[in-house]
Amino acid sequence: MSAKPGEVISGKPVGADRRRWYALLVLCAGTLMIILDGTIVTVAQPAIQHDLGFSDTGLSWVMNGYQIPFAGLLLLAGRLGDLLGRKRVFLAGLVLFAAASALCGLASSAGMLIAARFVQGAGGALVSAVSLGMIVTLFPDPAERGRAIGAFSFVGAAGASLGMVLGGVLTQLLDWHWIFLVNLPIALAAGLPAMRLLAPEPGQGLRQGADALGALLVTAGLMLAVYTIVSTGTHGWSSAHTLGYGVAALVLLAAFLVRQARAARPLLPLRLFRSRRTSGANLVQLLMISAMFGFQVLIALYLQNVLGYGAAATGFGMLPTGLAIAAVALGLSARLTRAFGARRVLLTGAGMLVLSLAYLARLPEHASYPVDVLPALLLIAGGGLVLPTLAGLAMADATPEDSGVASGLFNTSQTVASALGVAVLSTVAAGHTAGLRAAGHDAVGALAGGYRLSFAVAAGLLALAFVAAAVLLRERRAEVAQPALAA
Questions:
Q1: Please, which residues bridge with residue 8 across strands?
Q2: Using alpha carbons only, what angle is made at residue 375 by residues 369 and 378, rounded to the nearest 5 degrees?
Q3: Is this model's pTM higher than 0.85 or not?
Q4: In terms of domains, do 90 and 185 share one?
């Protein structure tokens, strides 16, 4: 017999239980908009460059103009969620992101587009920083939380792949402006139900202290660090520009840590790092996302520059990656974690990712997509085991008061890793390509060789992540025994 609203099951009203899952859908819709925007721009960049007259160097700011404020504001946004209420911050981020998306879609000059992308990044930071914290609060039961985080990770993976496909299709059939305007109906679909479904949270209040000096130091430090990383493609890693700005970023971040150790009400309580799971999960994510995000950008370039795919074909060629990750994250990850423990599931997924990138490191110049590319893209399904498991470990020891800043920290490490991975792997690919060209290789063969080396470096980063996870994320005996009893 089916339950009716108002009945109580396991001590919870049925209507309230459904409301939590509907609230999860709202949070996933907001995340979908942010993830979609992160990849939809990639395929459309050549069209944007042609239409608005970007130089090759200036074009990178279509991505960097978003990424720098996004990374820099995540920690502050997470803390504001704890102080002002995560619902308020989430809704403010949706409104800001939607308004900036409209400006991007109407942009008629390069400067207007970059400025609007900067505002988009700020709105994206507000939405992303508090979403995971709200999920942890909504689902205190470990089994339910695992399923919820799995669904959240599914949306992230599906959104990334959908962005590649949608970006190519919209650019070819309409024009690039629509890759930004498509965010508006998604924002409405998330924002209107959110006002009713998300529980109001008064927050701790600004009197608890937002640590203005700490916020200034970390925001400036992170923005400068990401700017330094993404500008290495123009200035090089050993240039005075990179070294100078890099040292300045490190000084600011070091000053921020000193401030957090002394502040009465810190922006980022250093006690979070006492948890081996929190520290280990963020470190492992830093290595993994560096490899995986760099891979995503470079495999798209490989399909276009070496195999000669168009924008839409590249998007569809990347689709198996997202589908594989999404299917595993939604259907298997939580079940396997309950049955075998988070560490074993994480190591299994990491091992699959190492094999995938190692397979791509042998790509021939005249590759066959079904034989040489598709098997690696399907092995990326390991990401569906890794992503929700890491998110669960990173948030496992966070108190309700710190869940916002813990969520912001997890997203910050992810964003910095994305910028670092693209910069490092792109530099490796470009440097090796130039060397092969100088040695007499033709243009396509040199490009293929550069991409091969970058995939090998990515495999090495994933191998380091595997070792770090094995060493740092050992489970307590009770945590290992519990899944066995549940099974």
A1: 13
A2: 115
A3: no
A4: yes
From 305, 418, 387, select the one nearest 132 (Cα to Cα). 387
**134 shares its domain with 231:** no
- Whether residue 219 sits in one domain with residue 161: no
Q: Taking the CA of residue 79 as centre, how many other CA atoms within 13 Å lie in the half-sphere pointing to its CB? A: 22
Residue 142 belongs to some domain of the structure: yes
251 and 103 co-located in one domain: no
Q: How confident is the model at residue 387 (pLDDT cuts 50, 70, 90)?
A: confident
Q: Do residues 249 and 291 share a domain? A: no
- Residue 128 belongs to domain with CATH number: 1.20.1250.20
In a domain, 6, yes or no: no
Query: What total number of domains does the chain contain?
Result: 2
Indicate if the alpha-carbon torsion angle 82, 152, 66, 353 is positive or negative. Answer: positive
pLDDT average, residue stretch 76-90: 79
Q: Are 276 and 409 contained in the same domain?
A: yes
Q: For 229-240, how does the pLDDT look when each residue is reduced to its tens digit (9 = 90+)? A: 777 767 777 888
Q: Is 136 exposed, middle or buried (0-12, 13-18, 19+ CB in 10 A)?
A: buried
| Cα 292 to Cα 421: distance, rounded to the nearest angstrom | 8
| Among 329, 290, 324, residue whose Cα is nearest residue 424 | 290
The length of the chain in residues reads 487
User: ∠ CA(211), CA(217), CA(223), 5° rounding?
Assistant: 130
Q: Is there a single domain that holds both residue 342 and residue 236?
A: no
Residues 117 and 253 in one domain: no
Q: Domain range holding 391? A: 14-210+267-479
pLDDT digits 0-9 by tens, 304-356: 788 888 767 777 887 787 777 777 776 677 778 778 888 888 899 889 999 99
